Amino acid sequence: MIAPEGYERPVISFQRVWKTYPNGTDALRDICLTVPEGDFVFLVGASGAGKSSLIRLLIREEKPTEGRLLVHGHDLGRLGRRHLPYFRRKVGLVFQDFKLLPRMTVHENVAFALHALGESRRVIARETDLALETVGLAERARNYPTELSGGEQQRVAIARALVHRPRLVIADEPTGNLDPETAWDVTQILASINADGVTIVMATHNREIVDAMRQRVVALERGEIIRDHRYARYDEDFQASALRIH
Amino acid sequence: MKTFRRALYASISAWQNFWRNLAVSVAAVVSIALILVLAGIGLLLGHALGQVLDSYQQRVSVLTISVADDTPLGTVYDFEDQLRARPDVVSVRFISKDEELRNFASDPRNQQLIQQVEGNPLPAKIEVRVARLDDVKRIDAVARQWRGADRNDPTDYRGDIISNMLRLSTWLTIGGLVMLGILLVVSVVIVMNTIRTAVYHRRQEIELMKLVGATEWFVRGPFVVEGVMTGVIAAALAVGLLLAVYRPFVERFQAELFFLPLSYDPRFVPVLAQDLLVAGAALGAVGAYVSVRRFVRL
Prior knowledge:
heterodimer; A: Rossmann fold; six-stranded mixed β-sheet; four-stranded antiparallel β-sheet; B: 298 residues; mainly alpha; 2 domains
C-alpha cells in the first residue's frame, strides 16, 4: 500500500479497489489509498488516468468492481440505495462546471442542500448566510448565478458544499474553468476550510496550484497510483526536486 | 416536524416550479385538460344513454298479469301477498275491472270503441314492478302457473324486447369499459410524456438533489405535488368547458330529437366535476411519479 505514515482515523480507505467498465476497460487498478482526517490531497494525472473514476467511486456514483472502499466508515460497495442519501450528507461536492441552478438565487442555491435535510427555516437562513460569508459572497445572496463571474459561481458552489458542515469535501477540477488568479482564490478558500479540520480531496490538472500548495499529491497513471507523497510537486517528489536544485 | 417541513418544501417548490417553467406547465395543463374533456364527453354520453335506457327499462320492467273474471278477490289478494314477499319484486298494484275500464275510456283514441262495447269485457289486472329487468321472466313464469290468471292472455310479457334490452345494456357496458380503458392508457401515455419533458428540463436539479443527499421521496415529492396541481387545474378547465356546453347542447338535442327521453340532469353536474377532478389529480400524480422515477433512482 502506498501511503504516507502517521495516519490516525482514515476518512477514506481504498483497499485493493478495481473499477472495470462494461466495455472491459480497467479505469482503476488495484488502488490502495488511505486519507486521514484533516488531510488535503491533490489527485493529479493526465486525462483518462482515472481521477474522475476515483471521484465517482468516492461519491458512490459508481461501485467498485473489486476490493473495498470505506468512506466515513461506510462500505460504499455494499451501501444500499436507502442509505446513500445519508452518506452523501456527510460529504461536500464541488464540480468543475459549478452545477448551480440558474433559476435560483445564490442564497437559494446554497440553502437547497439544507432543505434536502429537512432543516428549519431559521437554521437554513443562519447556515446559508454563514456559508456565503465564508466564501465572501454574502452581499451577492440575491443575485442569480448568471449575474456572477466564474470565480464567484465556484465560490457559491463551495458554499453549497460547506453549508451542511461536512467533514470531507471532494472537489473535481474546481479550478478547471477559472483564470489563474481566480483559481488561486478558490484554492485558498479550500485551504482555509482544510485549516478548520475538513478533509479535502481535489482532482486537478493545475500544475501551478499543486506546486504552490505543497500538499499531499497522489498521482494516477492508467488507473494506477504511481506516486503518493506529502509536500510534493505536481509531477515529482518535492524532496527529490529540492535535492536536484542544491 | 421534519416530515412536515419536507411536505411544506415540496408544496412551495411545486408552486414555484409550476410558474418558473410556465411554458411546459401550460403544455401539460392543456394536454391533460383535453384528455379530461374527452373523458367528460364520454361520461356525459354514458349518462345520457343511461337515462334513455333507464326510461325504457322502467317501462318494460313492469309486468301486467290479467286476472280471469271468475277469480275470487281473496285468491287475488293472496297472490298479491305472495308476490310482495319476493325480494325481486319492488311493488304490486291491483287494478279492478272498473278502474281498467275507466282508464280505457279516458283515452280519446278509444271513444268510438267504448260506445260499441256492452258491459265490461276488460279483465282486472295486477301490475308487478320488478327490481331488475332479468327478473321479469321469472315473475312471468310464476304468473302463468297461478290459477287466477286469464288462460287466453295471462301476461303482457315480451321476452324478445327484454332480451334485446338486456343485450344492449351489456354491450353498452362492455363498450364503455373498453373506451374507458383505451382512454386511460392513452391519457397516461400522453401525460407521462408531457411530464417527462418537464422533468427532463430539470434533470440537473434532480441530479444535484441526489448529490446533496436528498432522499428519493424528497426529490420526487415536488414533482408529484406539481403533477397533482397540474391535473387539478386541467380538470377545473375541463369541467368549466363541459358545463358551459352541456345544457345548451342537451336543449338543442331535445328540440331536434324529441322522441328520445333525454334531459339536462343538474344532479349529474357535481358527480361529473368530482370524477374529473379526482381523475385529473390521479393522472397528474401517477404521471409525475412514473416520469420522474428514471431520473430519481439513486
